[in-house]
Amino acid sequence: MVVLAIRRLLLGFLTLILTLLLVFVMVRLIPGNPAAVLLSDDATSEQIDYVTSLWGLNEPVPVQFGVYITNLLHGDAGDSYQYQTTAGSAGQDAMSLVLSRLPLTVELALASIFLSIVVALPLGLLSAIWRDTWFDHTTMGATLMLGSLPNFWIGMQLILLFGVTLRLLPTGGSGTPQHLILPAITLALPFIAVLTRLTRTEVARVMQAEFITTARAKGLSAQTVVIRHALRNAMIPIATILGLRLGGLLNGAVVVEVLFGWPGLGRLLIDAINARDYPIIQVVVPLAAVLYVAINIAVDLLYGVLDPRVRMGRR
Amino acid sequence: MTTRHLWTSRPAPVTRRDLLKYTLAVPAARGVLAGAGGAALLAGAPGQAAVNAQGTNVLTFGIVGAAGTLDARRVRAIPEQILFFALYDGLVDFDQDVAIRPRLAESFERVDPTTWRFTLRQGVKFHNGEDFTAETVAFTLDQIKSLDPPFYYVATWGPAWPPTVEIESPESVVITTPNPSPLLPNVLTRIGMLPMAATEPDFGEAPIGTGPFKFSEWAKGDRVVLEANPDYWDGRPPIDGLIQRTIPEPAAQLAALQSGEIQVAYDLPAEQLAVVTPPALNKLSAKSTGLAQVLFNFRAADSPIADVRVRQALRLGVDGAGMIAALLPEVATPSIGPAAAACFGALDAGGYPARDIEAARALLAEAGFANGVDLTMIFTEGEFSQDTTIAEAIVSQLAEIGANVSIVQLDSGQYAERRRTADWDIATNGTTGWTGDAQYYVNDVKITEGYESEELDQLILESDSAVDVEQRVALLQEAQQRLWDDVPYLWTFDVTLVAGVAGNVSGVELMPTAWLLFRQASIDA
User: Fold this and answer.
1) pLDDT per residue over B164-177, tens digit each?
2) Which chain A residues have a beta carbon less than 8 Å from that of B158?
3) What DSSP letter does each residue of B265-333 carry, written as one string?
């Protein structure tokens, strides 16, 4: 177990370094000089060249990377190009700006995962138990629909229904628990579709196994058989997909964040890419990679908990 | 399944009818609930309380972009400009007719072509208690001149840059410009007076001005919160606070306006203007000093665009009136000349001609393109209202005269860079014309299109030197006529700005220069 964890951590660290390098090089390959983008249309080419050299962008890329890593080791990830808050002095520090948006992204991600689990697992489980009944068919039909409807459209309908017509919930923004509800639902719905179907499939598969018949024959109650035996076994693929989903959500859910004006990492990243704000991009993407790796490590460790065969060293 | 378990039963297929029900369910529910909800609202049902966290006397306005800086020396984009006018005052600003009106300067006069005297208002204080004095004016302009990287608007200041300030007395300053500059007051509208505290390294994080609102809070990329300045020299604003909320999706902005979460929506989706009706909502509109332009590129000497006949042909190939009628009913009016009609001194050159395919083809043939001409249009979304549809419409209209325009769609970063090169023939562009004077556009073609004309430069020099206003306007109009005859743009339209405002809000001013002023805004209960 410990060896497993250490190996995973080392791999994670390597991923971080590679991601940093990759992002650093790739943003510089995107056409569009940040100085040209951020200075006004009026700016002369002399002014643009001046700002370009001020930001060190005219140096060869390896030199720039060297400077960047050196500063990073001192805890300085650079200042945002977009947020030149005070003339003549440093602008907004990229690392602190990104970290200030992280909690909101985490909040939205956790809320939507929670919603997904709470809705999809029971629905999927019941669909598997009542296989081929009206319940099963209704659920599968509904999830198929949900998965096909565009996220954006669903979100807009929710805004219009709950925000404008009924005035029950805010149409966007953040700050109170009510602000979280519609974005979390919009974000959760397509995943609920997927997770419900997966749960149903996995549980149905497990229910076919002989040990289930044995358990039932032994006299265990339906509830015990279903929860302790069937669901537990189905959890491994479910845990995998939940981990992948959470990792993806921590990148920021751009469509939902733009629609609801939710100030998370997704919007920050998109705005930064449009503005060619390299320092912000260089923090957000490696951060997302680190979180993704961390979650996958956690899921791997979770297998150990769920599946005794892993714990014992057999695969 | 051969054995039956207690928890399974017979199968029941899902029919197509069931699926259809789901697609219609939500809009149907909305319809039903709209009726119910509407009835509930009329009956005075609550629901508002759950949505509005702020007190009722705070005005929130929604805007698509976000402020990148609140420092008066660096203000550039519209979200920043709006907050600029809330936090700071300049010596002068514009009124609704784009005439200069005094603010921190009580009066001003042009002493000679390169010299202006400003008589200063006494007793004005900054938000931190500092006094506004003659020294403030000198200090502020020094700050602007010593910016590193340099001040963004040097090109627009043109002959007025760099200004020199001389303090005559505590009540008056004299500003001298290196070349004759009739537009010094115009460019001073965007110079906010700075306190000595502006030299602090963190000034931009908590800016201080003399304006009607004081800084309170800034969540970058999301919102800026200001509170009323009770000691404002022009009278305390009627509202207690002002919040700028970034709402990136215009449809969501409209929804927020309808639900009461914001009281002003700056970016309304053009297709949904019909929803904004009294008494719940009102529209603010202003004939902007800005133009939506389809530009020609004059930088490539060997491009077909360099031939005036080609430009004339292309201009004749476009159905401007038709596009305005079909796509932009409330937000555009036909241009009269190279400058927006709302600008001072704008020339009425008769506007764009009606579409004439025969004449266009004839001109192209005369220029040697009887078999067609290939052109490149670069495009990025968001330059002006309906720009995507207009660009596509223009391409298909020009195809009918034998001009094959290929659209290259770029993201805003690539577009900004490519626009400065010779590597395009046609491009879309939105301007604000913020100096409020027709000269803005004579200058603008040089910057955006690389247009060069010594004759024009000479005319502008003479008009700048003219002391008599009528003489200046006559020369300026002559310059505009020359420009117009040389077909500088493929097509333009005069922009009408439209903002949405809640029915119980009054006093919000939407300026032709695209700013929103909230000094006199009030919310009626």
Assistant:
1) 999 999 999 999 99
2) none
3) ES---GGGGGG--TTTEEEEEEEEEEEEEEEE--S-TTSGGGSHHHHHHHHHT--HHHHHHHH-TTTEE
Pick from A243, A207, A172: nearest CA to B8: A207
Give helix A177-207 / helix A94-129 axis angle, nearest 10°.
Answer: 40
Q: Given CB atoms, is B201 within the 8 Å cutoff of chain A? A: yes
Q: Please state, in angstroms and rounded to a whole number, the distance separating the CA atoms of residues A261 and A183.
A: 9
* B232 within 8 A of B241, measured Cβ to Cβ: no
Give residue-wise pLDDT tens across range B176-203.
999 998 999 999 999 999 999 999 988 9
Exposure on the CB side of residue A2, measured as CA atoms within 13 A: 0
A27, A28, A42, best to mutate vs chain B, most B CBs in 10 Å: A42
Question: How many Cα atoms are found within 13 Å in the side-chain-facing hemisphere of A11?
Answer: 11
User: Would the CB atoms of A42 and B154 count as touching at under 8 Å?
Assistant: yes
Cβ within 8 Å, pair A86-B205: yes
| The pairing of beta strand B373-379 with beta strand B426-430 | parallel
For chain B, the first-to-last Cα distance in angstroms comes to 68
Cβ distance of A271 and B221 shorter than 8 Å: yes
Cα–Cα distance measured from residue A131 to residue A110, given in angstroms and rounded to the nearest whole number: 30
Closest CA to B416 of A277, A50, A26, A38: A38
d(CA B200, CA B149): 17
Q: Where are the beta strands (DSSP E) in B74-198?
A: 92-94, 100-102, 105-112, 115-120, 164-169, 172-176
Q: What is the ipTM for the molecules in this complex?
A: 0.87
- Give the model's confidence band at A313: pLDDT under 50 very low, under 70 low, under 90 confident, else very high: low
Q: Distance between CA atoms of B87 and B72, rounded to whole angstroms?
A: 9
Cβ-count burial B200-222 (b if 16+ within 10 Å, e if not) = eeebbbbbbbbbbbbbeebbbbb
Q: By CA distance, what is B419's nearest residue in A?
A: A41
| Cβ distance of B30 and A161 shorter than 8 Å | yes
How many Å apart are CA B142 and CA B124, to the nearest integer?
20
Contact B283, B501 (CB under 8 A): yes
The band of A3, judged by pLDDT with boundaries at 50, 70 and 90, is confident
* A interface test, pick of B410, B417, B429 with most A CB neighbours within 10 Å: B417
For residue B495, give the 3-state DSSP assignment: strand
d(CA A116, CA A114): 5
Q: What's the mean pLDDT in B128-154?
A: 92
Tell me the residue ranges of DSSP E strands in A101-218. none
Residue B373: its H or E element? strand B373-379
Radius of gyration of chain B (CA): 27
- What does the block give as tokens for B16? 């197509």
Give A63→chain B minimum CA distance, Å.
Answer: 23
- B19: nearest CA in chain A? A141
Listed by number, the residues of chain B in 111-170 with a beta carbon closer than 8 Å to a beta carbon of chain A are 143, 147-150, 152-156
Chains A, B: CB contacts under 8 A, how many?
214
Please tell me if residue B430 touches chain A, with a CB cutoff of 8 Å. Answer: no
B11·A137 Cβ contact <8 A:
yes
Query: CB–CB of B451/B443 below 8 Å?
Result: no
Joined tokens for residue B443: 């200058």
The residues that bridge with B437 in the sheet, in sequence order, are B344
Amino acid letter for position B81: Q
Residues from chain A that touch B26, judged by Cβ atoms under 8 A, are: 157, 161
How would DSSP label each residue in B229-255?
A: -TT-TT---SSSEEEEEE---HHHHHH
